[in-house]
Amino acid sequence: MASSNTSGASTPKARRNDVVAAEKERFGGIKFGSAFFGWLTAIGLTVILSTIAAAIGVGVGAANTSSANDAANQAQENAQTIGVVSGIILAVILFIAYYCGGYVAGRMARFDGAKQGLAVWLWGIIIAVVLAILAAIAGDQFNVLSNIEGVPSIPVDGSALTTSGLIGLAIAVIVPLIAALVGGKAGMHFHRKVDQVGIDHTAR
Q: Which structural domain, as residue segments, surrounds residue 43?
């Protein structure tokens, strides 16, 4: 009985792969519900981490300047450096947030982790596009994401057509995609470890 169910697999890992393949055939594919909760996780973490980063930046700036004139002069001298640092910080925040979002989706869906991560990213793009269209039609106040600090959004006033705007948009698109794919695979990998424990137990 056991040998017929494992299709000739001779090792615990091979038996696990057979079981997972059968389960994936029935329950695999993109789960947009799981991906939506992954996207909510990513957005929530983006807001939290951006707020923390902004608070740290304000605290450091206040500690390093003795007057408003000093602060203005220092900001003017270091504008380019600040822009680079801000871009790096944004990339790190987005990577952490969307990695966690992809992980949540991968854990919930159990199979096809990379696809779940892609779906998390697609949710972000779809919602940003819908809100940008709504803002273009009804007014910029409806572009809700633009009012949340640190959350990527699609500007409707043409401000993204500058060099810095295009770089920022690229960071907001590419980094979350990579992070969500990696996170989705990590979330799925947890279930493969659980499956292996089950196979090892039944093989005793």
A: 30-189
